[in-house]
Amino acid sequence: MTPGQADILGVSFGGRLVVVTGGARGQGALQARHLAARGAQVIVADILEDEGRALADEIGAQFARLDVTSEADWAALQAQCGDRPLHGLVNNAGLYRPETIPDTTPEDFDLQYKVNQFGTYLGVKFAEAAMGPEGGSIVNISSLAGLHASKGIAYVGTKWAVRGMTKTAARELGPRGIRVNSVHPGIILTPMLDAWSDEDLKTRTAQVPLGRAGLPEDVVHTLLFLLSDFSRYISGAEIAIDGGLSV
């Protein structure tokens, strides 16, 4: 489904500023496309400069070089926003390395912590400072692995942390009109699943009550809702997008 075909959702952002981290490719790029198609001023924020700039040029967005683990990069992004109040932030950038416990090195653990958890923290801190008096919406991309045990002790740990951080931020930032929610995708057909064998994918998909793997659009539509005014009284929620797998 293309952005134009999904306009039945009735979501329009009317020039509001939205930042998508990890926006150069995959799920983040699709999010940026849909947001731009609905009138958002999008900043594609990514460490992948060539891909990010190309996408931004294509959809009429801006690009910001952002390593989510770098406080200096977040400060530069805030300067790029200037006096425009931020409406939405999608903390999408993430690293997926589902190693077993014996195969997880301290270096692997630290890197996943820095990207998935510390990067999300810096994003929330940035958004709190960049949002105006009308508040806004932060969507943290967690995972089904943030709701129950899964392979990859470092990855799972960070995604559980994102879940808890989301709830704390929702409580603390609510008085400022800032909503914070987390989404928890299950088996979604994105390049992240390249870490799985074909047999793993087949076996796990067979366990999904709806009988199929999810598509990136299944995540994007929920994200558009959470960024829009249609979800104006939803904050601190955790939404599983998993075909019923977590039930």
Automatic annotation (TrEMBL):
Transmembrane segments: none annotated. The keyword Oxidoreductase applies. It holds the Pfam family adh_short_C2. Keywords: Oxidoreductase, Plasmid. One of its GO terms (molecular function) is oxidoreductase activity. Belongs to the short-chain dehydrogenases/reductases (SDR) family. This is 3alpha(Or 20beta)-hydroxysteroid dehydrogenase. It comes from Pacificitalea manganoxidans.
